[in-house]
Amino acid sequence: PTDGSNCSNTVTINPDYKRHRYSSVYQNREVGTTYGEGMLNSPTCWLPNSAKTGFQDGEWMQLDAGDATTILGVVTQGRNDAGWWTTEYMVKVSTDGKSWADIACGRIFQGNTDMSTKVYNLFPSSVKARYVRIYPYSYHGYPSLRA
C-alpha cells in the first residue's frame, strides 16, 4: 500500500552519526556528542544552536538512508534526559542532497508530547529518497529532537 498503513515488513532506519547532518548544533558541539545526538534512543538529542537564544525557522536535522529507497514516514522522540521535545515539524526529502521537495505540500506533522515516546508519522504516500530533513516548527521547552 502506498500509505504504509498495512505494511507488515517495514523497517525503521536509524542511521549512525556518519549519516546525520544538522543545520547547527547548540554550543557548536560535534555530531554524535551532547546536543548532536539525534539518533533514536540516544542519550540526549539534537538541539540547534539557536534553541536558547531565540529559535529561528529553518533549522533542520538531516538523515541519510545511504541510497535512494522507499520512505513511508518518520519516527521522532524528544530529549531523553530533559522535558524538551518538538511538538510540530515539516519534512523535506531529496535524492541528491541538493534539490528538496516538501512532503505533503509542506504539511505540519504532529510531533512529540513527551521526551521518550516514539511518534510514527506516515506520509500521505511513499516517496523515493536518500535524504530526509526534519524542520522543527513548534516545541515544548526547546526544539529537541531524535529521529
Automatic annotation (TrEMBL):
Gene3D superfamilies: Galactose-binding domain-like. CDD domains: FA58C (cd00057). It holds the Pfam family F5_F8_type_C. Residues 46-147 form the F5/8 type C domain. This is F5/8 type C domain-containing protein.
